[in-house]
């Protein structure tokens, strides 16, 4: 199986391995293979003639199997243009004086950041990618924004969408700049730590993710505090979100008891932020806690509990009030739960539902497309999956 591209599949494996900052030994360990096996694959000495093996490699590298096969470009079928070069260029100009560009007034900068976040929460990742180069450039040249909320939020939305699109390198860079821009502001630092925790979890660094998110949460939720009611609600919403991230890290790191304790702590904060605004865009609340309980149940292998909780929580009013991006991402998690439980039809329903809520969650995210490819091989094929595979450009 060599695909349609003239570039050998082994070379594409090597290119993506380097891009994901994995050594040959690191890739081998995650695949349960030897370093020699990986080396031979990359040199073309050993052929990859089983789709299941290609899919395993693609899952570790967080790309679509079709990309390894040379059957599509990174953006094919995904609904997100390959505009990341513009983002890279904007980030590369960090600290470099740009004479032609004038500082953007703070009010205009806040409006641009708000628009980017609104697009992100509606699952319009292509739109976010298009505006990021200009937004990042505006942040870098605008006086007074170097360590302000607009700067943190701009880098945070950039990191969030880059995580979605599977570009961990740029995600790390923008998350780091969000942390730096936050300075000593605990709330802003906490919002930056949210996406940092996500990146650490996706990189398989569960203990680091747990330590980072718990430390940031403790700074926000541990009394005494003398903040105004509005500020305190922000602290608790960000702190609660960090605790939910920490619970996910603990569960996937094999610490279910700690995950339960963190969930309980997060749940205890809900009533104190229930009626407050959400300027930090955390979506923290009772529904977010229950959705995390589903994910944690999946991680510890309690699939029956996970599916049961899922069926209940999506009937709540709070579910419909969550942003499209949040619901779409969660439905993909639910699809994995159904798949692990052996319910292919249920998994297919969840992906179809996710596509209806936030199409880019299914069509643009490499990890979700890999899940879709796995469902497409199921027999009988779940209803709606064939249509999705055609829409995203997957071949079977």
- How big is the Rg? 21 Å
The sequence of SSEs as H and E is HHHHHHHHHHHHHHHHHHHHHHH
Average pLDDT, all residues: 86
Tally of extended strands?
0
Span of the ends, CA to CA: 12 Å
Percent helix range: 55-70%
Largest sheet: none
Number of helices: 23
Query: What proportion strand?
Result: under 5%
Poorly predicted tracts of residues: 1-5, 73-79
GO molecular function: DNA binding
Pfam families: HTH_31
Protein name: XRE family transcriptional regulator
InterPro entries: Cro/C1-type_HTH, Lambda_DNA-bd_dom_sf, TPR-like_helical_dom_sf
Overall description:
The protein has 396 residues and is mainly alpha-helical. Among the domains are: 9-68, Orthogonal Bundle (434 Repressor (Amino-terminal Domain)); 79-183, no CATH class. Helices cover 69% and strands 0% of the residues. The protein has 23 helices and no strands. The chain has helices spanning 9-19, 24-31, 35-43, 51-61, 65-68, 84-92, 106-121, 125-141, 149-164, 168-182, 186-202, 206-221, 229-252, 256-267, 270-273, 286-299, 303-313, 317-321, 324-340, 344-357, 359-363, 366-376, 385-392. α8 runs antiparallel to α9 (149-164), α16 (286-299) runs parallel beside α19 and α22 crosses α23. It holds the Pfam family HTH_31. This is XRE family transcriptional regulator. One of its GO terms (molecular function) is DNA binding.
């Amino acid at each position: 199986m060599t695909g349609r591209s003239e570039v050998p599949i082994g070379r594409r494996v090597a290119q993506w391995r380097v891009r994901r900052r994995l050594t040959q030994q690191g890739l081998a360990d995650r695949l349960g293979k030897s370093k020699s096996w990986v080396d031979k694959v990359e040199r073309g000495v050993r052929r990859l003639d089983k789709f299941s093996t290609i899919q395993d490699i693609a899952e570790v590298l967080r790309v679509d199997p079709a990309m390894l096969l040379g059957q599509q470009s990174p953006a094919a079928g995904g609904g997100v243009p390959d505009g990341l070069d513009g983002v890279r260029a904007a980030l590369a100009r960090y600290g470099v004086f740009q004479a032609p560009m004038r500082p953007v007034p703070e009010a205009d900068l806040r409006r641009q950041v708000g628009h980017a976040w609104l697009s992100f929460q509606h699952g319009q990742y292509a739109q976010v990618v298009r505006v990021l180069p200009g937004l990042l450039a505006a942040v870098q040249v605008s006086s007074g924004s170097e360590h302000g909320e607009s700067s943190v939020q701009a880098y945070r939305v950039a990191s969030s969408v880059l995580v979605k699109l599977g570009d961990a390198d740029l995600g790390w860079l923008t998350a780091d700049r969000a942390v730096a821009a936050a300075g000593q502001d605990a709330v802003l630092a906490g919002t930056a730590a949210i996406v940092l925790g996500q990146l650490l979890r996706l990189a398989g660094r569960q203990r680091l993710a747990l330590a980072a998110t718990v430390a940031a949460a403790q700074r926000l939720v541990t009394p005494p505090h003398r903040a105004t009611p509005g500020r305190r609600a922000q602290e608790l919403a960000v702190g609660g979100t960090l605790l939910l991230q920490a619970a996910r890290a603990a569960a996937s790191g094999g610490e279910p008891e700690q995950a339960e304790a963190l969930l309980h702590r997060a749940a205890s904060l809900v009533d104190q932020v229930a009626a407050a605004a959400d300027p930090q865009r955390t979506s923290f609340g009772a529904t977010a806690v229950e959705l995390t309980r589903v994910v944690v149940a999946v991680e510890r292998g309690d699939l029956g509990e996970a599916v049961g909780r899922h069926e209940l929580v999506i009937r709540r009013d709070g579910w419909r009030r969550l942003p499209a991006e949040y619901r779409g991402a969660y439905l993909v998690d639910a699809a994995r739960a159904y798949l692990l439980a052996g319910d292919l039809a249920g998994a297919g329903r969840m992906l179809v539902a996710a596509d209806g809520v936030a199409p880019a969650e299914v069509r643009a995210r490499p990890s979700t497309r890999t899940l879709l490819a796995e469902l497409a091989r199921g027999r009988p094929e779940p209803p709606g999956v064939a249509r999705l595979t055609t829409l995203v450009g997957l071949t079977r």
